[in-house]
Amino acid sequence: MFTDAQNWRKKVGLDELYKNIDPFDYLEREAVFNCWPMWFHKTDKQGRPLNFHFLGGLDLERLNKEGVTPERHWETVLVNAECLTREILPAAARKYEKEIDSVFVIVDLKGFGLSKFWQMKNLAQRSFQISQDYYPETMGRLAILNAPSSFTLIWNVIRPWLAKETANKVDILGPDYREKLLESIDEENLPWAVGGKCRCETEDGHEGPRCHLSANGPWLDGRAGWGPNAQKAQTNVSEKSNEIGDPSESKNSTNRQRIQDSDAQSIYANRASEVEQVKEEQLEASSAV
Ligand SMILES: [Zn+2]
C-alpha cells in the first residue's frame, strides 16, 4: 500500500504540483469553491478539522464558464486532498497538543438532486477513491445533513447491522440537524450556512459570509503561503521598504507566475492519460444533465 501511494504521488507529480498551487491561495480558488464547495473550516470540540461538502452548490458547467478547465480543477482537488495530511491535521495536532489524525466530514444534501448527482458522480468517485487509497482512515466522523426522510428510515434499518465503531461514526440527519451538530461543534466554529455563528466576513469590501473561502483554522496560524496573494503582499512590503519604490517588482511577480504556469504545463504533459480521462468524464457528466 505504501509503495502504491509513493508510485501514485510520483505519477501525478504531487510534490511539484503542491509547490505550484498553494491550496489556500491560487487564482481560481473562489470559482472552484463557489462551484465545487468542499472545504476545510475550523475544528470540532475534540480539535478535529471540519470538512464541509455542500453538494447542492455543485455546478461544473459554471466552473468551466469561469475559465477553470477540468485539468486545472482536478489539480486543485489533488492539492486540497494533499493539504489534509500535509498541513491541516498536523496544525490541529500542534494547536490542541494531542494526536489528531482524522476529520469530521459534514455533507449537506440540501438542493442536491439527480442532475447534480450525475454531474459529480465520476469526479466525486475518483476523489473519494483517492482519499481511500492514498489517505486512508482520515474520516473520523460523518454527518449527513438534510437527508430525505426515506434515507433516514433506511439508515435506521441498516445501522444495527454495522459494526458499532462504523455506525457510531455516521449520523444521518434530516433538516433538524443543528442541535446534534452543536453537541460536538462550538457555535462559533460552525458556519452560518448550517446554523452556526461563524460568517468569516472580511473587511475588504466583500459582503456576506465567506466561510467557504476563508479556510479559517489553526492551519493558517503564522502561515506565509506561496500563492499570488502572498507574492503580492511580499511585493508590497518590498516596495514600501524601498524609498523610491521599484516598479519592476510587480512585473517580477507576474513573471514568477508565468514560470509557475509553465511548470504546471509540464505536469499536465506528464499526466496526459489521467487528464484525458477526467475530460471524458466531464463530457459524459455534462451530456447526462
Ligand atoms: Zn467561518
Automatic annotation (TrEMBL):
Lineage start: Eukaryota, Fungi, Dikarya, Basidiomycota, Agaricomycotina
Any single Pfam family the record assigns to this protein: CRAL_TRIO
PROSITE patterns: CRAL_TRIO
Domain of life: Eukaryota
Annotated stretches, region: Disordered: 222-289
Signal peptide (UniProt feature, chain positions): none
Positions with biased composition (Polar residues): 250-268
Annotated CRAL-TRIO domain residues: 14-202
Basic and acidic residues: bias regions: 273-282
Name of the protein this chain belongs to: CRAL-TRIO domain-containing protein
InterPro entries xref list: CRAL-TRIO_dom (IPR001251), CRAL-TRIO_dom_sf (IPR036865), PI/PC_transfer (IPR051026)
